[in-house]
Amino acid sequence: MALKHPSELAASPQPERRRAALIGGGVIGGGWAARFLLMGWDVAVFDPDPEAERKLGAVLENARAALPRLYDAPLPPEGRLRIAGSIAEAAAGAEWIQESAPERLEVKRAIYREIEAAAGPQALIGSSTSGFKPSELQVGAADPARLFVAHPFNPVYLLPLVELVGSDATPAVMLDRAAAILDGLGMRPLKVRREIDAHIADRLLEAVWREGLWLVHDGVATTEEIDDAIRFGFGLRWAQMGLFETYRIAGGEAGMRHFLQQFGPALKWPWTKLMDTPELSDQLIETIAAQSDAQAQGRSVRELERARDANLVAMMRALKGTDWGAGRLLNAVDGALGAGALEGESLVTIDADWLDGGGAIREARLAALFESATEACVGWISADIAEGAAGRYAQTKSKTRRLASPAIGDRASVATRIASRRGAKLRLAHALVRADGTALATGESELTFVCAETREVRPPSRPVARRLTEIARAQASID
Amino acid sequence: MALKHPSELAASPQPERRRAALIGGGVIGGGWAARFLLMGWDVAVFDPDPEAERKLGAVLENARAALPRLYDAPLPPEGRLRIAGSIAEAAAGAEWIQESAPERLEVKRAIYREIEAAAGPQALIGSSTSGFKPSELQVGAADPARLFVAHPFNPVYLLPLVELVGSDATPAVMLDRAAAILDGLGMRPLKVRREIDAHIADRLLEAVWREGLWLVHDGVATTEEIDDAIRFGFGLRWAQMGLFETYRIAGGEAGMRHFLQQFGPALKWPWTKLMDTPELSDQLIETIAAQSDAQAQGRSVRELERARDANLVAMMRALKGTDWGAGRLLNAVDGALGAGALEGESLVTIDADWLDGGGAIREARLAALFESATEACVGWISADIAEGAAGRYAQTKSKTRRLASPAIGDRASVATRIASRRGAKLRLAHALVRADGTALATGESELTFVCAETREVRPPSRPVARRLTEIARAQASID
Questions:
Q1: Residue ranges of chain B whose pLDDT lies below 70
Q2: A323: left (phi over 0), alpha (psi -120 to 50) or beta
């Protein structure tokens, strides 16, 4: 909690921006581009598709509307995007080069040859391939050691998982370097212990896909019914705990060994049709596509993407509250981002859901903002003197006043000062000030010191009173 | 939005409670019991396990801490739980009888014989079986028509999905009756079009399970790594959209048909090992169990359950905000619950996260509560006169004051009145009043009428002014 006015905060010196190259700018390449850019990297994209720039713009627009909402700390300033005219032009000078080309081995190998001719000796080369093994990609490479699989998941700008896979020719230190960079992008690199076709997640997905195709083929369920069977049931479970942890719980008090022994016989039952694959005939394709059309109820892919992103952001933020899984990762990134330039100042970005129908900041948002400032202040007042404090300040009253209506995307920060102090009462004054200096809102919190033992209201204990005097003095010197 | 004081609200007459019988009170049966009880049904449980009552108590404790938090409307008063001494004793007089016994066909059939001897002629009999087909269960039943599969997902008190499966002997009207009851429990019945072994969801789960076992067996990944591959990636996706809708989006602008045609060849690749199943040898069981132990980091199954429930509640509540999937279902249930006895009054339950460290209601909660009351009020003031309104009230200032600290679980309601009105200004007074009549907090909102066209502040348009006079008059007659 800073007691400084935001204008006091010197802008931190702009560090040299890191550079990434994306070969292929479709849904996956565009998602990578968005994540690098929003995390402050400069990005060069090469894609031979004449529509590439428009498609990339659409992905970026989605990402800008979603990724920053995952975090409470502000992201670094967005990097610069450049459309390159060739693979060589994109790759030159890049620290990370990511290939997201179609799944054809010869195409990918040809791309690597062009990358290697232009890239610096330290550059890392990742492939988004969902199926090929790194040893297959490395055939013909001048330096196979730095070419590995970095397989992300759509939408790349929101889902954290990246499967990192090397071959026998990949030194461990290379994957360590890659993992550190992905950590910095807020991602969750998962080093796969042994290369296999389709890595880990797509093996599981492929299994579900085959079974799903059979269910439609056999008329057991429509695409919508299968989707509902997932999202109203085990899909919710898997967003926070995976297969094994869920079954550990299902086993109950008897434990995992007992669960496995009990489950053994079921493996012998002919439950799945996975021993075989249905032929993807024109008729089956038509059935699935028609069912999928009905399910979409006229919503475009763009609309579905926005709905998906809103859901993912909301759920991942919910998991921040429980500090679990993807939410725990977000909290860690928040810590890393906030610990940098901001000196504890809580900088916020005005989001669409901050504003009511009339464009004014919602009362509840303002109250939450000022309340956490108050809490931080109370924490700061009694920090390290908890034992001697013999009580604490509790908020009794509050007021807020909106002064100006911000625009979505505006950045602002809360500044808090001690307004007055008399007996048991302490009044804090808050201001929400936009980066340009405009005060958007003010607020006041009235607190009362309560004795820990008797729960009676009384003037603060000596160490607390002394701390308050120090703060007021520091404040006066700033004013 | 009620403008009445909560004491004005007559308690609705207590309807006759509906009765359910649970045969088997383990994790699944206990979960069913909890859902029925918390939704106001009386429940009788029979389970021969001498530990049954204790285990049931543990499930109920979890459910009471989680299920009510999914909803904003209050649940009906909890039903009465009775431990029955026999299947017949449990089944007598029950409207729904749910069998959650071990997966052994002869055991289940013997249970149905006992149920049928005691149950009323109209009683529905559901089975929680995850594997058997209803036609298999119905063999030997006196009335096969009313015996069907109602397969839920753990935790039954939170996850909405129930697979409803009938055989050729099941009349459609029977499944309709079952679905209506499950709807009333806040669940999402999914009628399966054709009976097959393991229905729908467990087919998909079984496929993933087999592939997961191979990945551990082959040393490609540990249980924790597989779980991370799920929960940081596609698991998040599947909590809100299923397999097909996700792939529809992945196909991008080219559409679902194109996606399927492109995906066709991959089905021929030997990506999965599903043509075979790994032997669940002692060694593989030991490997999995040991990895699962390491992953749990000493957390007990009880602790994991609580973490899981907190995550599920948080994510499902997040999906209420986007009105999607499981969240949309919750909103519908809220509507149904709220539309009953409460006449729009917003009754709330004080939850642990409402209170700060000192036991006082958090400022942000209070502000949100009063803000939504203000918004409801503004909506009510201009309802049906939007066209003539030519402007709207926008909140400019607010104040809150905490008067008393509630206990967790207390129920309270917000009452709002027009405090004053002069020119463009309108002041609303809120009170948060506990069910026993204690005022927990008060608040005041100041609003200003803003012209829709010029954005200038001015007195409200005639229809709005007239409505305000009506409200004030109605208020006076109540006071």
A1: 1-15, 253, 263-278, 338-347, 380, 382-389, 470-479
A2: left
Tens of pLDDT, residue by residue over B99-122, are 999 989 999 999 999 999 999 999
Q: In the numeric block, which tokens belong to residue A402?
A: 């909106």
Inter-chain CB pairs, A–B, below 8 Å:
473
Other residues' Cβ atoms within 10 Å of the Cβ of residue B415: 22
Cα gap A247→B154, rounded to integer Å? 10
Minimal Cα distance from B277: which residue of A?
A267
Q: Count CA atoms closer than 13 A to B401's CA, side-chain side.
A: 9
Alpha helices in A264-324 (DSSP H): 282-296, 301-322
**B364 vs A363: CB contact, 8 Å cut-off?**
no
B227 Cβ under 8 Å from any chain A Cβ: yes
Which residues lie closer than 8 Å to A263 by C-beta, 6 or more apart? A247, B280
d(CA A185, CA A92): 21
Instruction: Give the pLDDT confidence score for residue A75 in this predicted structure.
Output: 85
Report how far apart, in Å, the C-alpha atoms of A118 and of each of A79, A113, A114, A153 are.
22, 9, 7, 28
> B439-451 and B391-402 as β-strands: parallel, antiparallel, unpaired?
antiparallel
Task: Measure the CA–CA gap between B237 and A313, rounded to whole angstroms.
Answer: 11
Cβ-Cβ contacts under 8 Å for A136 (sequence gap 6 or more): A105
Asked whether A215 and B203 are in contact (CB, 8 A), the reply is yes
Is the Cβ–Cβ distance between A97 and A20 less than 8 Å? yes
Over the range A123-135, which residues count as b (16 or more CB within 10 Å of their CB) and which as e?
bbbbbbbbbbbbe
Residue for token pair 């997966």:
B103
User: Is A322 part of the contact surface with chain B (CB cutoff 8 Å)?
Assistant: yes
In 10 A of CB A176, how many CB atoms? 13
**Cα(B294)–Cα(B283) distance, integer angstroms:** 17
| Residues in A 258-287 with any Cβ partner in B closer than 8 A | 260-261, 263-264, 266-272, 274-275, 277, 280, 285-286
- Other Cβ atoms less than 10 A from the Cβ of B283: the count is 10
Task: For residues B347 and B100, give the distance between their C-alpha atoms in angstroms, rounded to a whole number.
Answer: 35
Spatial separation of the C-alpha atoms in residues A278 and A216, rounded to whole Å = 10
A446 → chain B, closest CA residue: B401
Residues of B in contact with A451 (CB under 8 A): none
- Rounded CA-CA distance A82/A172 in Å is 32
How far is residue A331's CA from residue A312's CA, in Å, rounded to a whole number? Answer: 16
Q: Is the four-CA dihedral A174, A176, A179, A180 of positive or negative sign?
A: negative
d(CA B272, CA A27): 25
> Is B197 in CB contact (< 8 Å) with chain A?
yes
Alpha helix locations (H) across B128-193? 134-138, 172-184
Q: Look up residue A84 and give its DSSP letter.
A: -
A389-427 as b/e: b if 16+ CB within 10 A? bbbbbbbbbbbbebeebbeeebebbbbbbbeebeebbbe
> Which of B204, B330, B371 is the best mutation test for A, with the most CBs of A within 10 A?
B204
Read off the pTM: 0.70
- The residue in chain A having the minimum alpha-carbon distance to the alpha carbon of residue B212 is A204
The pLDDT tens digits of the residues spanning B61-71 come to 999 989 988 88
Strands A391-402 and A439-451: antiparallel
Which residues in B358-409 belong to E strands, given as ranges? Answer: 391-402
Amino acid of residue A28: I
Tell me which residue in B103, B207, B363 faces A398 most closely, judged by beta carbons: B363
Residues of chain A short of pLDDT 50, as ranges, are 1-14, 271-274, 339-345, 388, 476-479
